[in-house]
């Protein structure tokens, strides 16, 4: 019996390969893929990722295109639940040495992921054969993928914190010029803009996730503005506390003052804050860029831009999706080569990925007409040079303990159960505890 | 002999000497037989309860991570760290507070509903069904029901109810530290009261009717009958309900995990969730084991102390 997606690939190769069809069929792949998906003469390539929602649809489309272009590779993709469950599973698979050929990892989590023990390094020669080289990436982001002189993570994108805005409301509040938001410089101007919105609509002008289960946006928000002051949370090696009280307090007091003045919604969990923006009840929304698909599908009049520079520089909190090779006891041979070929193909075709809002990390894509035609995605692409990633520490990165714990503490400051000072003290105490705790997954190369 | 009647001798032994086996042989044969029957259970018990208990203690003395590799023996360091860890104490307090808040209404409401169902003679099956039905739902269903129907501040039933009696709606039932724990308690009471209700109802039905008849002849009113007949005769059931309820409430995890994730600001996070976070998000299996053994000690104390107390009460009552 032929595995079900073989016949599908033939159908696609036969000229019916419209992306829409691929997307519709793609959802079947997950449950239909048998244990051994490789047909005769095919190389099995297993790929784990954590992309749901709009990202999931984009990813499925790309995977189907890859399948159509590579009949000799049987690609078996598994979508796992985002966050801590994903990383638990990935870690255990690597520890057992029976991991899939390829997986996705957030770059800031690399330090805690035991490169050399849970992850295998990339073969840069093999990547180069497929046209992917170090100079194709922003140097900082490429370097963050290294440990012990080897390349463990190859970045696919950067996903920064951005500012979404309702064009019609901003127009009414007199904040637009020439079809886009007038530049906002400094914390005072931003507060004024929010006041103008409040005057025009009678409602708070800004919404962002302030509480909820495993709520991490308060951390992203703080990290964004704190990085703009030039402050660092940890020392560059991720081993010591480097939080600057004065700068951190400035940011926290500013954010709480926005809430106190009624310029920002005090209580909104993630779904609520998306629906508040979606229903046009507010003008501004601070979040990761990935919700673009949601707002696109809702056909609301919105656009997005970089987070304005409120405290100095215009940097924004970010993390990167990267490809990694989870540790396999006998890595090598055709499956490993297929994994390298897949990574290179995905990078070269990451315009499709950029539709979901992410800024491709593969620089040659950033200059292509296809990418530049993506609006508003390509308008904030230069943020890739100003992103603030967590310092390399085992407890940092997307869905990490640091994010979840500090997210809860900072949520208290935004919703009013903690004072800015109290929240800052608690943040420092939590960070000290994390720093004093032994890395539970000590890596060979970190 | 009664022994032979109770335990037939195996065929192999009966073909032995031809004379009737001595009583002692029979008893041993019976024991061996018993072991064969009990063995599967013992095996499962040893494999899934005794062994994890022992290996858990071992793990709590190491720095083992989630991959099961790289753990070194570190003695009591994990316990020392746990005792100094404010998160352990705050989440332990949340667990105890939840237990206090939930046990009282669950026992009282269980009794109240049982009394109602016992005395409402018409369509009794309907009362029984409606009060016990929620208990049959999985916790995931219950939590979603409350998350999407009862608690949302825009259209939730809870706010509608407040508005209908003229109170200010718009309460963040699960997002406000003042109400989050109470909301989880309310959900739990609605969901699990059926079990206590059933225990009480069974006990009520076991009270002989002639006691009430005699009391009525002596002129005792409804309140006196409740105070002097029903409640004293339910004492044993109340003891059982109380222990079972305290133990069940101490093990709170799923409602909180699904409804608030432990928030806002960790204000509803129970100790079991902290164990989960340390073990599965933080990868520290050794430390998570140590924390769970501290919790285990608490549960063990409760389950040992309660029967002691109730026995003493029973002895005093007998005097």
From TrEMBL, chain A:
Keywords: Signal. Pfam families: SBP_bac_1. Residues 1-32 form the signal peptide. The keyword tRNA processing does not apply. PROSITE patterns: TAT. InterPro entries: Bact_solute-bd_prot1 (IPR050490), SBP (IPR006059), TAT_signal (IPR006311). This is Extracellular solute-binding protein. It comes from Streptomyces nitrosporeus.
From TrEMBL, chain B:
Its main location: membrane. It is found in: Cell membrane. GO terms for biological process: transmembrane transport. Residues 92-306 form the ABC transmembrane type-1 domain. Residues 1-22 are annotated as: Disordered. The chain crosses the membrane at residues 34-54, 96-117, 129-151, 179-202, 290-309. SUPFAM superfamilies: MetI-like (SSF161098). GO terms for cellular component: plasma membrane. It is a multi-pass membrane protein. Keywords: Cell membrane, Membrane, Transmembrane, Transmembrane helix, Transport. Pfam families: BPD_transp_1. The keyword Ligase does not apply. It comes from the Bacteria. Belongs to the binding-protein-dependent transport system permease family. This is Sugar ABC transporter permease. It comes from Streptomyces nitrosporeus.
